[in-house]
Specification:
One of its GO terms (cellular component) is membrane. This protein is of the alpha+beta class and about 300 residues long. The protein has helices spanning about 1-65, 100, 115-125, 130-135, 140-165, 175-200, 225-255, 270-280, 305-310, and strands at about 70-75, 80-85, 85-90, 110, 220-225, 285, 295-300. Helix 1 runs antiparallel to helix 5 (about 140-165).
Length: about 300
């Protein structure tokens, strides 16, 4: 009787261990499925964030070398003045002009740092006529310096953030640094836009008495294509910043701590394989005691008993 009772207890114990093993295996599979889902979503969001960042930096670079940051239409002279960060251009107005004047009205560009341009500006200001007042925009103004200053830091933080974002799977805390770098990139780009637009909306001020009767309504100043291109770049970088927030969230869900996996080879951590292989065998591994020195024994299921079962 005692032996039968012990056998029954062993069977109950083994049955309990079998159910526990099955439950743990199901939990492991569910955990792996969630991890794979988060990993795929993380890679997609990270790729979108990096693409938007690079697109914004490329548009920023194109806008910096364009002369169409600010456009001034001078109706009396039938010319258009294009004011950029580095150079200024004068081109014929889009209105119809006589053919004999077309050759004399070709686009002419000059850099702000050209000594001849500075001398021409000084002479025009000495004359003091109304037409020379527009030439004040041909100087290297504070808003131009501000755009260049913040553009440099936009590229520095943007390139640094892209490197951190690419390497973030190696070390999950890098995802937070990725967010910080993109926030600084966004802030620098937006500040450049705000400073330039605020300054461009105001006519150039000068305290000379010879310009007291200047009528600014004769000159139509408006933002050029380069300014709008830089605004578009700021929008892309801002969208990349918000995408980086989702990237950091998904990465922290995928890997809550550094598990020693490799981001370059895409290999899973060794402990995951050990845990997975533990449940792939045909039998159950059972320890007789909690001591690590105890040797486990394996109980193999009987195929005949499974076939004979109703």
């Amino acid at each position: 009787m005692a032996k039968s009772k012990r056998n029954a207890e062993s069977v109950v114990k083994l049955d309990s261990l079998g159910r526990e093993a099955t439950l743990r295996r199901v939990q492991f599979v569910e955990k792996e499925l969630r991890r794979m889902s988060h990993a795929s979503s993380y890679k997609l969001v990270l790729a979108v964030s990096l693409f938007l960042l690079f697109a914004g930096l490329v548009l920023t670079a194109f806008s910096l070398f364009s002369a169409q940051w600010q456009v001034s239409e001078i109706g009396e002279q039938h010319v258009t003045h294009l004011h950029g960060l580095w150079k200024d251009c004068i081109e014929p107005s889009k209105e119809l002009i006589p053919l004999y004047e077309n050759s004399a009205r070709q686009e002419k560009c000059v850099y702000k740092f050209d000594p001849s341009a500075q001398e021409e500006l000084r002479k025009a200001l000495d004359i003091g006529d109304e037409a020379s007042h527009e030439l004040l925009l041909h100087r290297f103004l504070p808003q131009h310096k501000a755009v260049i200053f913040f553009a440099v830091f936009t590229f520095v933080f943007g390139l640094l953030g892209s490197i951190i974002g690419i390497c973030s799977p190696c070390f999950p805390p890098n995802s937070m640094l990725f967010v910080v770098a993109l926030f600084l990139t966004t802030a620098c780009s937006i500040l450049a836009d705000v400073i330039f637009i605020a300054a461009a909306m105001k006519p150039p001020q000068i305290k000379w008495e010879k310009f007291d009767k200047f009528d600014p309504s004769k000159y139509e100043n408006k933002l050029g294509m380069a300014a709008f291109l830089h605004l578009l770049a700021s929008g892309l970088i801002t969208t990349s910043f918000f995408s980086s927030l989702g990237t950091a969230y998904l990465l922290l869900l995928t890997r809550s701590k550094n598990d020693g996996s490799s981001c370059c080879s895409g290999m899973r951590p060794k402990r995951d394989f050990e845990e997975e292989d533990r449940w792939h065998g045909p039998g159950l591994i059972i320890r007789a005691c909690d001591d690590q020195a105890c040797k486990p024994f394996v109980i193999m299921p009987d195929p005949q008993s499974d076939d004979s079962a109703p």
